[in-house]
Design goal:
72% helix; 10 helices; mainly alpha; globular; two-stranded antiparallel ribbon
Length: 279
């Protein structure tokens, strides 16, 4: 009696699993939403445009963490994320501010957006180059070098947030002030310099909260979330103002940690200079 004939096994499909593609799909979604803000700006819908950039910023904060959680990090994902950041947080905010405020000044008015977009490209290129550089001190991983791209986009939209909030409450004098090309252009250039600077800025990746401050922090998040739904433009303006106030404290924290690291190196008998001294 002949043995039963075995059927050939079905071949599995070759390629990446959906889990490994999910972070890149989220980056692509954020890219589409960020670029859609330009179309909304062309239609004069500036309020919806800034909210689109804010949503793309939230997605940008999630895709990297999701990639690490799923162990799907790759060099392709890092490069794709940088290109998306340049378009969403470098090009889109600059064009929005040009259409909203700087367009009456023509070619002169286009210079600040051009400087901001160029500075954002340089900032992201420096970040990518740092991935292949020598490892930094342990505490330095808690800091960005310069203002990161999503935060830079949020800061540079500060005049637009104020203008939209003033328009809602018929405060036309304030709207005219923040939309004046000289004010908007100066703000664009200032944020561009912050992005390409060597200023140490908290990354909040390993930020530890004392037990006593945990409950106030949670209550503050609840209040801010309620404010986002009640008045998103005011929430955006307050977030930008709080970020600016935070920068000097970030520099002070970095310098304190750098001094402590230098003291530990000296106590360990290493006479070499500490390469992570203040920027």
């Amino acid at each position: 009696m002949m043995p039963p004939r075995r059927l050939p096994r079905r071949q599995r499909f070759a390629g990446l699993s959906f889990n490994r593609m999910l972070p890149n799909l989220m980056t692509l979604l954020g890219l589409c939403i960020g670029l859609s803000s330009i179309r909304l700006g062309l239609d004069g819908r500036y309020g919806t445009a800034v909210l689109a950039i804010a949503v793309s910023g939230v997605i940008d904060g999630l895709d990297g963490r999701l990639a690490r959680l799923l162990k799907a990090t790759s060099r392709f994902g890092a490069e794709f994320d940088s290109l998306a950041d340049f378009l969403c947080f470098g090009v889109a905010p600059a064009l929005l501010l040009y259409m909203w405020s700087l367009q009456p000044w023509g070619a002169i008015g286009f210079l600040p957006p051009l400087m901001f977009a160029s500075a954002m490209a340089l900032r992201l290129a420096r970040f990518n180059a740092a991935l292949d550089s020598a490892p930094k001190a342990a505490f330095a991983y808690n800091f960005f070098t310069g203002v990161p791209a999503p935060a830079g986009a949020g800061l540079v939209l500060f005049p637009l947030f104020i203008g939209l909030e003033a328009n809602q409450h018929n405060q036309f004098w304030l709207q005219n002030l923040v939309s004046y090309p000289l004010f908007t252009g100066t703000f664009l250039v200032a944020v561009a310099l912050l992005c390409v600077s060597t200023l140490p800025v908290w990354s909040f990746k390993n930020f530890k909260i004392p037990n006593a401050g945990l409950m106030p922090l949670l209550l503050g998040v609840v209040v801010f979330a309620a404010l986002i739904f009640a008045d998103p433009y005011l929430a955006g303006a307050l977030a930008g103002f709080a970020y600016i106030i935070m920068l000097p404290f970030s520099v002070r924290s970095y310098r304190k940690l750098a001094r402590e690291a230098a003291v530990r190196r000296m106590a360990a008998g290493d006479g070499t200079e500490d390469s992570t001294e203040q920027p």
